[in-house]
Amino acid sequence: xGGLFGFGWLILIVVNVVAQKKPSINIxxxxxxxxxxxDVGPLGGNLLEVSVLNNSxxxxxxxxxxxxxxxxxxxxxxxxxxxxxxQNCFADNVNDESFTTTINLRLHGNQMLEDELYQVTKTxxxxxxxxxxxxxxxxxxxxxxxxxxxxxxVPDDVTVGGPKSAAEKRPLDAGFTIKALVFFTxxxxxxxxxxxxxxxxxxxxxxxxxxxRAPLFSPETLIQTVAGVPMTVLKTATIFENKWLATxxxxxxxxxLMEGSVSFTPHSISWFxxxxxxxxxxxxxxxxxxxxxxxxxxRLDVAEMAARRYSMSVNDLYVVTEIPVGAVGGxxxxxxxDGQYFTAYTIEPMLELLWSEDSxxxxxxxxxxxxTTPFLPQPPQVIDHTVPEEQxxxxxxxxxxxxxxxxxxxxxSEVLSVADCIARGLKIQEHMSPKSCSKVxxxxxxxxxxxxxxxxxxxxxxxxxxLTFGLLVMxxxxxxxxTAYLEARFVNNVPPSVSxxxxxxNFYILVKYGTPGFTFKTLVGNRMLTSSLAQQYNFMDNGTxxxxxxPFSAPDVVIEAVExxxxxxxxxxxxxxxxxxxxxxxxxxxxxxxxTLTECFPNGTITTMAMKLESVPSLELSQLTLRDATCxxxxxxxxxxxxxxxxxxxxxTRTFLPTMMLYENEISLPAPAMKSKTETDSEPEYExxxxxxxxxxxxxxxAFNNRPRRSEPYADNGIExxxxxxxxxxxDAYTTFYRAxxxxxxxxxxxxxEVELINSGKPDLSLELADCWATLADDxxxxxxxxxxxxxxxxQGDPHKVIFHPVLPDARVQNPLNFKRFEIPxxxxxxxxxxxxxxxxxxxxxxxxxxxxxxxxxxxxxxSDQDAGMKGxxxxxxxxxxxxxxxSGPMLIS
Length: 894
Hints:
By secondary structure, this protein is mainly β. It folds into seven domains: 11-125, Immunoglobulin-like, CATH 2.60.40; 129-256, no CATH class; 258-377, Immunoglobulin-like, CATH 2.60.40; 395-430 and 444-491, no CATH class; 497-594, Immunoglobulin-like, CATH 2.60.40; 598-706, Sandwich (Immunoglobulin-like); 723-893, Zona pellucida, ZP-C domain (Immunoglobulin-like), CATH 2.60.40.4100.
């Protein structure tokens, strides 16, 4: 930043909307030859006021700063450098050898904070005075020349005169006072001291020196070109008088301007300072004694210059300084112009020269020259780091200089501050590296965020995000923006999946390969599906999927329970990664299979089979016995034990009924085996009851339509019952069904229901739907209630009527009359528009009809508004017919 900052008027350095705590800054002071420097910062978004303490506190204004020897620069990070001349207006000067200055620094925060006051007192010794010392600062020029003290000779540039002898040199005693100044512009112009001070000039007479200070571009200066370098030049004569005599001291200063003395390339800065500054030289011969280079008023040695890649050389005309753009000691800053982003590099190098003229007097010449390169456009770059498979947009924007802040982000329908973005779960980070202008902002937005648009294109998912970054150059208070459009496309990779079902004797498994490229292995139960096992299970492959059939009695099937009329068996199938052995998909299907475990023969022989249950994994079937512990199984393996005995052996009991005789026995572990089980064994006891009925009149075990009886643990055989099951298919092919207890659905998503008469064994029976309705709870009598099928027909008051699907025979459907299929869209009960229910249960009443005797009205209803051939149902039930009740669900609304 060029110019003067921070005096009197309050300068806002950094944007700081709300201060959270009182500011804490660091202050360092340094004595740098004939100037002092204070390093202050960071200011943290507060306002800086500088004042000095003399007899009273004086707030420095811009005018007073240049008149009294103060300058300040503040970089774009909020760090301030305050330069103070040792001979400033407020210094406590002890014999021109020690200089003490007290400075007050006040930080003005926002209304929530009290102002913070810091006081710094610094004493700098300085005795290496040259005859003449010139300082060129960013806002003033200062010349200090040796004056005449009592008892010391008058220097060459002091002319003593009076009424009697204008050329006679005499000592200058304490009686001399400054009466006027003469400016050569180039014509002479005389001013009284008070007038000169009112015009902003600083004039003081120290114990040994005359100090003159002028604003850098005061009206009495002139621009003069020296060796092609433009310089602002001040030439004066100060007139002293006492009662009888008058004398004058000549003082001149010349300071280079950046324009004309500095040249730029994209990578370097070259500063040319004339070796011979003619406006300051009166003699013919000069000798250059010392040349030093530095930055911000501080000299650098050779090693420090090499480390920073600075260089300095002296030729016949110039002292040439070379500085790389971006080198240590300077900084980049930003600017917005016409909505475009620009950057420039700024640095304040120093050159300090010491020369002598004709070996009579020496001059120390110090120049602190602020240099800023031209602002160049630096369009921000958007880099898309998105990996579509990660389902997250990742983008970076930059680079920027350190003085740029991210304020907000505009999405398609809203503007969010950085804090709002973070609160919403978006990840925003700011990255900086030691390299200049390396600030980069990164943003991560999940594909699931509602600002992300999604569409499907030919087997691909396309996600897009349009956003605008709102940015601010802090020191300039200039907002600007940059828009980015992100798009991610990827093939919908579908992993392999497994599904299946069962009929009255087999499990049917379907495995889809998914997207090409997935490799997996298939486990059936605990065994790998090898080629030999696949052959046993009727393996078939069509390129997109394969299927196989597993009998319910296969060794890879586990038995969960033995019910009244069936065995409940389960088949577990899993797809695993061959590399990690992790599950890709896992499937289990459990079904009830009709099975005759117990058979009763007319000659009194009874056979029964005890199955290995999953709930009793440690059971050794060979140890099972009938009530008589000596009666063990005739054959056993790790899956079942087979018993053969008669009605009058092995502890079988006999009970006389009115028309039948009941023989009973039970299978269990003998007492020694029971005692061997530990008290901590959590497995249930194994007990299996066996019962046979014999017709007393015929003495045959063929009662009840000459059909053998079945048995289960803890219960006798009962009268045959027809079982009806309702299930939900994945699609209208009705090949794959949901297997979870809770099924998530979207509103209006089609629901495909199938109702089946299980294992009827009679091709002359047909299943008919009577009524179907939906409720909020699994209680079929609960309210509210919505009718789906009424009297066997779709509810005419429903805007989305039930669609009936025909049932055709296939590998799974042997008798289409035992099935009914219908479709409804997913819906929700609601109290108002914003209060949807979260689950729905569907209930149905069905009727079993005899197709050979269709006289009943429940089996002969047709719906006039339905597809031709689709039967409806009537709630009237003829004698001999029964209603079966079914409930699905729950189905959860996503």
